[in-house]
Design goal:
With about 100 residues, the protein is mainly α. Helices cover about 75% and strands about 0% of the residues.
Length: about 100
């Protein structure tokens, strides 16, 4: 039984690595990133990926991705630092649009 559990988590980790590698390929395609940014910021047409990102952003930014799948967490962990480093202005616009400010 322990071997099956270990195998399951190993496969899950490999899937996450593949998902992160896949997203890294997309992030190297500047026109594609720009297209997704236009979608996310309601400045252009959205494809399936852009719609999914728009759907997940509030969960990622406001709920620390608590309801995300492990794959979505891996993608968020790749995407957020990339945006902060390569698109800081757009990242601030995304935060303003999707992050709910809590006042106490």
């Amino acid at each position: 039984m322990k071997i099956k559990i270990l195998l399951f988590f190993t496969i899950l980790a490999l899937i996450n690595v593949k998902a992160q590698n896949d997203i890294s390929k997309f992030l190297m395609d500047r026109p594609y990133v720009q297209k997704q940014l236009h979608c996310i910021l309601d400045r252009g047409h959205c494809d399936v990926i852009g719609k999914k990102i728009k759907e997940l952003l509030p969960e990622v930014l406001n709920n620390h991705c608590n309801r995300c799948t492990s794959r979505q967490v891996g993608i968020a962990n790749t995407l957020i630092p990339f945006m902060q480093q390569n698109y800081p202005y757009e990242w601030q616009l995304i935060l303003r649009r999707y992050k709910i400010m809590k006042y106490y």
